[in-house]
Structure formats: structure tokens, C-alpha cells
């Protein structure tokens, strides 16, 4: 039976659910993550020549986008936009499949990869649209705030300009973190309650606003746990692939690391966030009582139907 949980219990239950649902989550997530990682790697690395990049976006990795092959064709903005959209769609689908597995496992329902994939496909367009809205609402004020600070700073002395810029960056960072915290439950709200667009953001805000400190602790701890638990495995896989393929195919290692990160971090974070979502509903709305009443009602209907069949 569900009950209110402390922060430590949320993490403990989240890890247990992660362990129990891991096989189904990996099978479901791999269906889209593996082809997606291949696509992302090709977009970023297919134009690399002798380790020299012609694209400033990927210059740090010694790779450039496939679009740079066509000189004078695509702009860097189009290049970056495609990469961003592909990554957002892949991550959205992976998160949806993981949350479906976690919710079924946590509520003692039958869990399967096929069921989770079907669930994610039905809600995929709405989820992508929600994530695009979230990115826009999060980044637009941040960009505007930084731009305003830079513009105001340029009107004064160099020190004043530097001060305004620093203040703008700090304020923008705090604003972006605030958005992330209060909207952290937007995806479970959409997937498990059918809340769309702004309603999903509002639903997440209503569940988190009274426990923002708890939400921050859960987010930070989940990220740290997922990173430290998965990092050794990712480094081991990357090292093995690097020794096998050699430096000439280093872009393969990049793709393997990206895939390993997605398959390791996303399911664990989805598990902990989903348990946190249910815990907030239990605390604020008595969801445990509602669920128990629904189970009792279903059993009563089944028994009534059985008696009618026996009587006939």
C-alpha cells in the first residue's frame, strides 16, 4: 500500500523499482536509443577529416556536421537545430517508456517492454510538444535577461558593464533552475494523468510548490547517484571500444558513451522522479486512499459479475 515517504525512502524505493523494472526499461529504451545514438553520431561526426573540424559548434571534439559538406548550403543554426530536435525527441521517447515501466512496477501492475513502447508511442507527439514549450519558456526569459544586462552594461564603464553581465548571468541561472525544479514533474503529469501543454506545467507546479526544498534534494541526489553509479560502467565500455576501434574511429566511442549515458542515467532518474510524483500525490491528495478505493470497487464489480454468471 502506498504511504508518504521521506527523502531517503523515496531514493530507496526508487532504486528498488529501478532494479525490478530494469530489464523491461532497457529493452523498451533500446528500441529508440540505439538507432538514435547512431543518428546523433552521424550528424555530429560524419564530416570529420583528419580530426580537423570546419564547424565551430563541434570544434572542441574535432568533428563537424554532415551539413558542412555542402558548402554554402545549410547554416550553423540549421545544423544545431536539427541536432537539438533529434536529441529532444529521443530523450522524450526514452523517458516515456521508462516512466511507463516504473509506474506499472510501483503500482504492482504487469510490466512489459511492448506495453511501455505502445504507451510511449501514443503520447509521443504531446510529450515532444510539451518539452519544446518547456525549453522555450525556460530559455526565453533567460536570454532576454542576459541580453538586457549586457545592453545596460555597455552604456557604462567597463567595470559596470562587467558587473551587469555577471548579475544577469547569475539571475538567469537562478531563474532557469527555478523553472526546472517547479516543472520537474511535468512529464509524469502528462503521461499518467493526461495533462497537456500548460496544464502539465501547472500540475507540476501545484505538486512541487509546497516542497521545493524536497524537490531540489531529490533532483540533486538522483543525478549524483545516477552519475556515480553509471560512470564506471560507461568509462569501461568506452575504454574497451577505444582499444578495439583505435583513434581513427574515435567518433564510435563518442556514440557508445552517449548511448551508455542515455541507457544508464535516464531509467534511474525516471524511477526516482516517478516515485517522487506518486509521493506528492499521496501527501497532497490522498492518492493511496483513492487507489485503494478503486481496487476495492473493481473487485466488487468482478465478484458481482461472477455471482450473476453463477445464478444464470
Brief overview:
By secondary structure, this protein is an all-alpha fold.
What is the share of helical residues? over 70%
Strand content: under 5%
Query: Rg, please?
Result: 23 Å
Secondary-structure element order, N to C: HHHHHHHHH
Strand tally: 0
Q: Give the uncertain stretches in residue-range form.
A: 47-73, 306-312
- What structural class do helix, strand and pairing data support? mainly alpha
Q: How would you sum up the global shape?
A: globular
Q: How many helical elements?
A: 9
Mean pLDDT: 75
How widely separated are the two ends? 36 Å
Reported for the largest beta sheet, the result is:
none
How does this model look, in words?
This protein has a domain at 7-123 and 211-295. Helices cover 80% and strands 0% of the residues. The protein has nine helices and no strands. It has helices at residues 7-45, 76-106, 113-154, 158-182, 186-193, 198-208, 212-245, 250-285, 287-311. The radius of gyration is 23 Å and the shape is globular. The relative contact order is 0.13.
Amino acid at each position: 500500500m502506498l504511504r508518504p515517504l521521506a527523502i531517503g525512502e523515496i531514493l530507496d524505493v526508487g532504486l528498488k523499482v529501478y532494479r525490478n523494472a530494469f530489464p523491461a526499461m532497457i529493452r523498451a529504451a533500446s528500441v529508440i536509443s540505439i538507432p538514435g545514438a547512431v543518428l546523433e553520431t552521424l550528424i555530429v561526426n560524419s564530416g570529420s577529416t583528419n580530426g580537423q573540424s570546419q564547424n565551430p559548434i563541434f570544434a572542441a571534439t574535432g568533428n563537424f556536421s554532415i551539413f558542412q559538406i555542402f558548402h554554402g548550403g545549410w547554416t550553423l543554426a540549421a545544423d544545431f537545430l536539427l541536432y537539438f530536435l533529434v536529441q529532444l525527441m529521443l530523450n522524450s521517447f526514452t523517458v516515456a517508456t521508462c516512466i511507463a515501466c516504473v509506474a506499472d512496477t510501483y503500482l504492482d501492475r504487469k510490466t512489459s517492454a511492448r506495453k511501455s513502447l505502445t504507451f510511449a508511442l501514443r503520447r509521443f507527439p504531446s510529450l515532444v510538444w510539451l518539452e519544446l514549450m518547456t525549453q522555450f519558456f525556460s530559455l526565453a526569459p533567460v536570454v532576454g535577461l542576459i541580453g538586457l544586462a549586457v545592453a545596460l552594461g555597455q552604456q557604462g564603464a567597463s567595470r559596470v558593464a562587467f558587473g551587469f553581465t555577471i548579475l544577469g548571468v547569475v539571475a538567469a541561472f537562478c531563474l532557469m533552475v527555478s523553472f526546472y525544479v517547479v516543472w520537474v514533474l511535468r512529464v509524469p503529469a502528462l503521461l499518467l494523468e493526461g495533462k497537456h501543454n500548460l496544464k502539465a506545467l501547472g500540475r507540476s507546479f501545484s505538486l512541487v510548490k509546497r516542497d521545493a526544498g524536497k524537490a531540489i534534494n531529490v533532483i540533486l541526489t538522483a543525478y549524483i547517484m545516477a552519475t556515480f553509479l553509471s560512470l564506471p560502467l560507461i568509462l569501461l565500455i568506452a575504454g574497451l571500444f577505444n582499444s578495439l576501434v583505435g583513434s581513427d574511429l574515435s567518433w564510435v566511442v563518442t556514440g557508445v558513451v552517449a548511448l551508455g549515458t542515455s541507457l544508464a542515467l535516464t531509467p534511474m532518474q525516471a524511477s526516482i522522479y516517478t516515485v517522487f510524483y506518486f509521493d506528492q500525490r499521496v501527501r497532497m491528495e490522498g492518492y493511496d486512499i483513492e487507489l485503494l478505493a478503486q481496487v476495492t470497487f473493481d473487485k466488487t464489480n468482478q465478484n458481482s459479475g461472477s455471482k450473476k454468471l453463477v445464478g444464470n
